[in-house]
Amino acid sequence: MQFKVKYRIYYEDTDAGGVVYHSNYLNFAERARTEMLRECGVSQNKLIVDNGLLFVVQKLDIHYIQPLVLDDLIEIATRVKSARSASFAIEQNIFRNSEKSPSAILNCTIVCVIKKNEGFKPYKIPDNIINCIYKK
């Protein structure tokens, strides 16, 4: 299943040349992952407060293909590629202005962890979440 969300590129997202600063791609991708969970009825804040569970990035690879610039309308398509008991791998494609080819591709491994007094430990992703984000 693929989840999609759109954002506009604002001045604050860009450098002095009007090009999106490289680290902002990560912010856009994070927002899209949050919206994917929201679409599944998951509030990350509630998950932390009620269960001590968090989703953290374990691994991230980004391929910048074409720059995003001021006023672009971007769409981020997020797809879960695989899932394990405590983690899932996703691909996120960022498209600009309805173009067919992505401007950037992110591959990311997300791990569910539980907060304990001694730190964080991997934890099984709740079934309702994995069933929503990953459909075979």
UniProtKB/TrEMBL annotation:
One of its GO terms (molecular function) is fatty acyl-CoA hydrolase activity. It comes from the Bacteria. InterPro entries: 4-hydroxybenzoyl-CoA_TE (IPR050563), HB-CoA_thioesterase_AS (IPR008272), HotDog_dom_sf (IPR029069), YbgC/YbaW (IPR006684). The keyword Hydrolase applies. Pfam families: 4HBT_2. The keyword Hydrolase applies. Belongs to the 4-hydroxybenzoyl-CoA thioesterase family. This is Acyl-CoA thioester hydrolase YbgC.
